[in-house]
Sequence to fold (232 residues):
Amino acid sequence: MRIRKMIDSFNYAVEGIIYSVKSQKNMRIHYGIATLVLFMALFFDLTKYEVMILFLTVSLVIITEMLNTAIEKTIDLITSEYHELAKIAKNVAAGAVLISSLNAIIVSYFLFFRKINPYSLRVLEHVEQVPAHISFIALIIVIIITIIGKAYFAKGTPFRGGMPSGHAAVSFSLVTSIAFISRDAFVTTMAVLMALLVSQSRIESKIHSLFEIIVGATVGVLITIILFRLFT
Fold:
């Protein structure tokens, strides 16, 4: 009987995890990023302590997101009307997720930057005397292709919604240009974080899906790389 209760408790916990993944878009994003980061960790010479820190950081983000979901559902169960205290509770829970996410970014920076930096500089050293105007040409071409894509898929407007995401395409095109021109891994890392925040805001506001963001980012990066490689 005791074993049966333990099995039931385990099943309930798994059901809670599955529900959070199915119902919460942010949770799916967290799991996707966590999977990518843990996969990248396989290619870096991390110590066992660094791996432990990485796992704890990933777990903290997922746990706070699950607690946020639990708090939201509890409040929705208690009342469907607007109440200032309910708003505060939801905002505080969301703030906990934000802090854990920022912590994850900082931890990832300290774990991976010193290992990525030498390789990044080695790649950027192959690019010399890059004409700055290429970045503007690349940006214009990216915008034109994005508008054509939106018109082709007939969804959204040139500046809002649709396939692909124009904000993601432009921001990642700029990131790629910064990588080629600055030849500084730290500056490039900061630019990537800004581009990710832009993309996250488009998903949060439900203007774009994750797939539209990925397509837009891919378009921006590929077109910019092709132009820099052709004319440098």
Residues 127-232 form one domain. The helical segments are 2-23, 25-41, 48-78, 84-124, 133-153, 166-182, 185-204, 210-231. DSSP finds eight helices and no strands in the chain. The chain has two domains: 1-117, 127-232.
